[in-house]
Specification:
elongated; single chain; 7 strands
Length: 264
C-alpha cells in the first residue's frame, strides 16, 4: 500500500508539474508571438539574455556559496523587474489592452453597401493609375481625434474628385494623410506615427510606414498608394497587405469598417 501511495503521489506531482509547464509554455508562446516584429522584440531578447546570465552565473553562484547579501539584492531586484517590464513594453501592452477592449463581434454584425467607400476606392484607383502618392486612414471604433486635430480640419463630404485634389502634387496637403470619420473627410495633411517594425522592407518609404504605424496603435484601416509604382496597400491590425486590386480593396474595406463610414 505504501508503494502504491508513493507512486500515486509521484504521478500527481508529476502531472501538476507537466500542467504548469504546458500553461507557462502557452503563455510565453502567445507573448512572444504578440511581440514578434515589434520594437519590443529585440528588447525582450536582450532582457532574457541578461536574466539568463544573471541567474546562471551570479545568482546561482551566490546561492551555492551562501553569499547572503548578493542573494538578497537579487531577490529585491526581482520585485523591480515587473515595473521595468511595464515601462519597457508600454507601447506593446497598450496595443494589446486596446485590442482586448474592442468588441470583436460588433464589426461583424453591420454589413451594407456604401457609396462613400465606392468614392474612396474610385479615387484610389485613379491615383494608382496616375502614380499619385496617397495615404488615407479610416476611423473605426477607436477615435482618431488627436491626429485630426494635428491636421487641417475639413469636415467635408467624401468624393473621388476631392480626394484626388487633396493628393494632387501641387496641393499643400498632399504629403499628409486624409482621415475619414463616418461619411466625411474629417481632416487632411495629418501626421501619423511611423512604424519601427524591424522586419519591414527597406524599400518602403515614409508613407507606407505611417500607414502601418497607425494600425499598430489602434484599429484604424489605412490605404496607401505608392507614388513610385502606383501599387495599392491596405494596413490593418499592424499588418500591411501590398499590391491589392481595387476590387479586393473595396471588398476588404467594406468588411472591415462599413459601420464606421456609416457613422455607426
Amino acid at each position: 500500500m505504501d508503494l502504491l501511495e508513493r507512486i500515486r503521489g509521484l504521478w500527481s506531482s508529476g502531472g501538476l508539474a507537466l500542467a504548469e509547464i504546458l500553461l507557462l509554455s502557452v503563455v510565453l508562446y502567445v507573448f512572444f508571438r504578440f511581440l514578434r516584429g515589434t520594437r519590443g522584440a529585440p528588447v525582450l531578447r536582450g532582457v532574457l539574455i541578461l536574466i539568463g546570465i544573471s541567474i546562471g552565473i551570479v545568482f546561482l553562484t551566490a546561492s551555492l556559496l551562501q553569499l547572503e547579501h548578493i542573494t538578497w539584492i537579487f531577490e529585491k531586484l526581482a520585485a523591480l523587474f515587473f515595473l521595468a517590464f511595464l515601462i519597457l513594453f508600454q507601447p506593446e501592452l497598450r496595443r494589446g489592452l486596446l485590442r482586448l477592449g474592442l468588441n470583436p463581434f460588433y464589426s461583424r454584425i453591420v454589413r451594407a453597401s456604401s457609396p462613400t467607400l465606392e468614392e474612396i476606392v474610385e479615387a484610389v484607383t485613379i491615383m494608382s493609375q496616375r502614380k499619385t502618392g496617397a495615404l488615407l486612414a479610416i476611423e473605426r471604433q477607436v477615435p482618431l481625434t488627436p491626429y485630426i486635430e494635428g491636421g487641417t480640419q475639413l469636415s467635408s463630404e467624401i468624393s473621388s474628385e476631392l480626394l484626388q485634389t487633396i493628393f494632387y502634387v501641387g496641393s499643400p496637403l498632399h504629403d499628409g494623410a486624409v482621415i475619414v470619420q463616418g461619411d466625411r473627410i474629417a481632416a487632411a495633411g495629418c501626421m501619423l506615427p511611423l512604424s519601427e517594425n524591424p522586419e519591414l522592407s527597406k524599400s518602403l518609404g515614409t508613407r507606407h510606414r505611417a500607414g502601418l504605424g497607425l494600425t499598430e496603435e489602434n484599429d484604424a484601416v489605412t490605404i496607401v498608394v505608392s507614388e513610385e509604382t502606383g501599387r495599392i496597400s491596405l494596413g490593418v491590425d499592424g499588418e500591411l497587405h501590398q499590391n491589392i486590386t481595387p476590387k479586393d480593396l473595396l471588398k476588404k474595406v467594406t468588411e472591415l469598417c462599413i459601420e464606421s463610414v456609416e457613422g455607426g
